[in-house]
Each structure stands twice: as C-alpha cells, then as structure tokens.
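Task card 7
Instruction: Convert sequence to structure tokens.
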Amino acid sequence: MTAADYRLALRNLLERMPQLTLGTIDGFFHRVLGMFSLEYGLSGEFEIMDEFAAQRARLRALDQLFAAAEASEPDRQALLKSFELMSAGQQDRRIYDLLEQYLRDCHSMYHSAPEKRFWGQPETIWPQGNPWSVQPGNSALLVQAFRDALEAETGFDAVDARARKSWQKAADHLQKWEPGKDLLGSATLLKQAFSGLSQLESGDWTFQFYRKDFQPGAAFQQSLGALLRYCLAAEFNRLLERTRGVFAMLREYDGRYDGLIRRQGLLTFADLPVLLAPEEGRPVLGGTGPDRLALE
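Output:
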C-alpha cells in the first residue's frame, strides 16, 4: 500500500467514526438490562448504586439474614453450622465481622462459580480419589512412634549430634499442633520433610543439616512420613470444611441480597453479569427458566 492508500483509509475511518457506538462492557450490559429488565427478573427500572449505597445495601442484607436466624430455629441452627464450618472450629465470636470479610473477599468468586461442587468438594478437586483423606488414628500415637524411631536412630551421632535435638524439637511441635495452627513452626527440618514426603514414604529421603547430608533409617522415615501425612490430611480436611461453610454462608446471603436489593433494581456493576449469566450452564437464548430470555 502507498501513502495515498493509507491516507484514504484513515479518512474513511474518521468519516465513519460518528456512526460507531463505543463504550465499556459494563455499559453494554447496562443497555441490555435496560431493554429487557422485566425478562431478567427486575421490577422495572433500575439504578447503579455508588459505593456508599452498595455498602448500606450489603448491611441491609446481612441484617435480614441475622433477623431471619433469630426468628426461626432451623435458620438459626443452619447459620450457626455454616459459621462453625467457616471458622473451622476456632473460637471466634466475631460472626458479623468475619462474614462481612468473606463477603468482600469471596462474593464475586461465588458469582463466578455458584455451584456447590466447586466449594470444598474432594471429588471435584481430586476426580481420581482423594489422596489426603483423614485416616483413623491418633496423632499422639504417631508422634510417640516417631519419637521411638528417633531414639533408635544411630546415624545422627556419627555425623552431627545436633540433628537429634532439632528433630526432638520438631516432635514437640507436632505433638502440640492442631489443625488451623502453624504446621511448620520454628523447626526448619520440617520444611525439608514436607517437601520430600514422597521420598520419605518410599524410604529414599535425605536431608541437609548444617551443610551435612543425612539419610535416616527406614523406621525413622516410615514413622515421620506417616505422621506428616496425618497432619496434612487433617489440615486439608479443615480447609475443605471451611470452604463448604463459606459457600453455605455466601449462598444464604446472596439469596437474601437478591430478593431485597438486586431484584428491586438496586444494582452495582458487579451485578450486571450476574443477572445476564446463563443459569447452570444453559444458554440464555431459548431457555425456559423464570429469568431466561426467549427471543427466537
């Protein structure tokens, strides 16, 4: 192309620019809802709230959630159960503050994946089977088995006797540990052990201590591997339960928010794709649900 061709193309573009409709994706969603607000379950006209109004709306929905829990024993028990899971059994009485924090952090994530199977379900995370299921056992017995193996281990003294004391501190830490607390603690050797868990369980693990290599005996590796696997499984199980609790809370809150705020035409820009999104993966055009838009 010559310079004249580029000038002609630029002139054509400039002449046609007044005919273009430019805007943001939020603006596009806004126009779609404006044309079909009733079809998308709104009460008619709607408005976009500013941040202050949106915060007040969230508080109204939270107040209704807690008011319903006070009025109904089943609702109260369901709310307390969800909070217990969400707080992972920790003694935290700041239920209102904790829920508000999760709403800020996770509400948009909930809209992206509103199905139960995406929240703390092992079969979704590990389709081939959960490798971290909690096995029947007693952590105190596992710690004691590791202490016995450590006591019987003779290779440490020949290389560096300080390694035995460090592992004794690690055993003390794991004996006091419970799910939700710091698993590594100040025992630097535990980090090496967790990163080499597969080698530990196969009996082919070597660790470094003060720039010296150690390869413990089979009993040491087997007992430590069993203990660490138990701890990891307990921690993962706690996190799965917490995620399920967060989902239950978010679902209950979003149901209140949807009826009290969103369906009354009080929206934020984050609500626009929520209203327009297909339900359960169904296409919007040709759907049959109450909020579907049939145009064919």
